[in-house]
Amino acid sequence: MAIRAGSKSFFAAGRLLPADMREAAYGLYAFCRLSDDLVDDAASPAERRSAVARLESRIGQAYAGRPADAPADRAFAEIVTAHAIPEALPRALIEGFAWDAEGRRYADLGALNAYAARVAGSVGAMMALIMGTRDPDALARACDLGAAMQLTNIARDVGEDARMGRLYLPLDWMREAGLDPDAFLADPRPSPALAGTVARLLAEADNLYARAEAGIAVLPSGCRPSIRAAGLIYAEIGKVVAAQGYDSVRHRARVTTGRKLALIARALRTPADAAGLGAPPLPETAFLIEAVTAQPFLPMRGRTPLRPWYDVSGRVVHVLDLIERMREREAFGRSASS
Predict the structure, then answer these.
(1) Residue 220 domain flag
(2) Which residues of 157-173 are buried (b: 16+ CB within 10 A; e: fewer)?
């Protein structure tokens, strides 16, 4: 999942956001990340289905104004209210988690894009709303960026996913390359055929990164460097995969801290270019944009302001820091025992 694997890139780019938007972005990320963990860490298919059902209930509670008594849930409830985020967007995210829970495979690129729309396009659209952007063309480009990041993530994690019994590459592409999906899952190995399939997926991601650039140009000026940096850092992951011969089985691409800093500097000085803003959305993301246009933003006039979510005990960003440290310890433990 991009939400889990992209945490360091997210925080590196998120630091460039204006302070008020950064707090809301981190709060949204906290709920999405913890939701991802809840499903992904379940031990059995039945437990994963139960986790998805609990998440659906928690979203309903948040939108009803009765969030679960947890920092991430209270933050999420206040964020979706303040920024008029349609309920269809986080529910699309949870639907993507449900597809993961059932071990769904994807017959072709369109089916994979439908998955990317849910687990990443939905987050891109929610981030755009936090930044005050509700224009349909800009939202389409935000969904493009989310989908591009997800395709990059899939290309990077082919081997890791296969060793967990998961396969996200389009099945028709694999068969066209002479790869048997079941045989690959049983014994994941690098090959020229697999490298070609990974390269093909990264080419699709690069097309979406290029489309997304126009949307960045119409964001509030203070938000553009952060989102451009996120896109550049994620696209760089694809370049590292390419430099490793598109071997995502024996290697896991990483972008060094120094390279991230260079890309952030590039994002700060890159001029905006809105050419291509009006390109149609991916068919698989159109439902997200339609959900936003059906729910216009209504200013919160005449109502008592919500208590700032960052006043809750256990502050969400602190929770995320703890998660990162636990993940790093788990990764160290696995490497030490191997």
Answers:
(1) yes
(2) bbbebbeeebbbbbbeb
